[in-house]
Amino acid sequence: MLNEILKEKRKEFDLTQQNVADHLNVTRQTVSSWEVGKSFPDISTLIKISDFYQLSLDYMLKGDVNLMKKIKKDTNDLKKYQNIKEILKIICYGLLIIAFFYLAGHAIGKGWAYYTQ
Predict the structure, then answer these.
(1) Cα dihedral sign for 106, 111, 116, 117?
(2) Which residues of the chain have pLDDT under 50?
(3) What residues does the HTH cro/C1-type domain cover (predicted)?
């Protein structure tokens, strides 16, 4: 599991959680929560950890079922939010088109009324 790997490597390098936190620009509490399996680092931080401890991402990730589930869930959530974003864009463009035609029709109607009097 990732939490065990992180704790083992930190101790192997004879570092404190604060040392690791300072290097990764996170809090000591964040490092602690990773090491007890309470939370997981994000992808960019995982890459920093991989470089820092000289570990492959493959080694760090593949054995941790919970982390793989989280990554899959995050990916699905991201896709869902991207779809929602596209739908909202279409709705906004549609409203803009409706507003344009409404205002254009209103202006044409006023012009027509002026000339027919």
Answers:
(1) positive
(2) none
(3) 6-60
